[in-house]
Amino acid sequence: MKSLPFAALIALQLALAPAAQAELSKAESAMAKMVAAEQPRSIALLEKLVNQNSGSLNLEGVEKVGAMMRAELEPLGFTVTWKPMRETGRAGHLIATHKGKRDGKRLLLIAHLDTVFEPDSPFQRFERRGDVAKGPGAGDDKGGMVVALAALRAMHATGTLKDANIEFHMTGDEEDAGDPIEIARADLIAAGKRSDVALCFEGLIRDAGADMSSIARRSSESWTVTATGKAGHSSGIFSANTGDGAIYELARIIHRFRTELPEPNLTFNVGLIAGGEQAMLDEGRIRANATGKTNIIAATAVARGDLRTLSGEQATRVKDKMAAIIADHAPGTSATLAFDPGGYPAMAPTDGNRALLVRLNAVNRDLDLPEMAALDPLKRGAADISFVAPFVDSLAGLGAYSTGDHGPEETVDLPSIARQATRAAILMSRLSAEKR
Questions:
Q1: What confidence score (pLDDT) does residue 43 get?
Q2: Which residue among 86, 166, 249, 368 is least enclosed by CB atoms within 10 Å?
Q3: Which of 382, 318, 394 is nearest to 345 (CA)?
């Protein structure tokens, strides 16, 4: 027998097995049915969003997607504001606010309008094939925005949105953050400080076929090591007067990073390296130019890489180790270590985050769905929720499930939209009904 999509499955369960859903309230059962019934609408909206290019640098396109989301949110009672961010080189952010009971918990929802696919990408259109659909941003994160909207529409229709305090922040530069990031993320951070719960609608991840939740995400920072040595004839390499040269010094540093830094939940990649008589990075620091000869000792060598940690404490400790390795110079050389401004912080696994997962799993049990385990943070990257995680209990991975993200095979699992929206609608309704 062919398996049913989630939308049809949950409707069938509710209709035929009410005893199995005994823990759902009347409103929650109605929300589940509405999400299932509105699945065609959700897919149609996803197609519309995907077919509007919104690469991070396509400022007009990002604004158009923001306008589409505004049109969906205002009829639900949200006050919607567009916050321009041209000063950071990006389009801006869409911020939607819904005011409910004064003493109710304040929820912060997070998603993003932009994608990695700019207007010159050949990957531009939504293409559906049964229960899956390909398209730029179909999963990351237009699928996530559709999940959030489906949940909010169900809450609105059943009355649970009326008393809910919700801020929905949709950044326009998650894939390529504006500079300075202190300005680009100021509104989001402020929202986190006045909220009780943060829910991120980036994509669901499955591990061995099981839906997973994320109570932690690692940081993302970029670093540059620049080594210098004494230029001279190659016959003098390693001598007391000349020393080891810049390339050997850089090789020493990189080797010691590899052998001395490893610890749980840490990665540090070297993505670009160059050295010679002269070596320099371009303005964007993604290309390098080097010149040299085999009989000239290298005067300069440079490497670029990233650092990903699970907490601020881990980041500080690892950076101190890197600095000590840098300072232990080879003969006749020197080196410097610099971190780019504005990296993404870590979302550490806290007791508050774990408690949110317990709440989500109560929803899963009531829907007769398998409980979700916490995803290994090594299996997903950094995200906007990390900016608010130090201030508020946080949960990530509430968006649609997709594969091939950031590539021409980005494909969303359409039934996951209804499954995730049902989970989110019930979780948000329960949280919103609680006092601060």
A1: 98
A2: 86
A3: 382
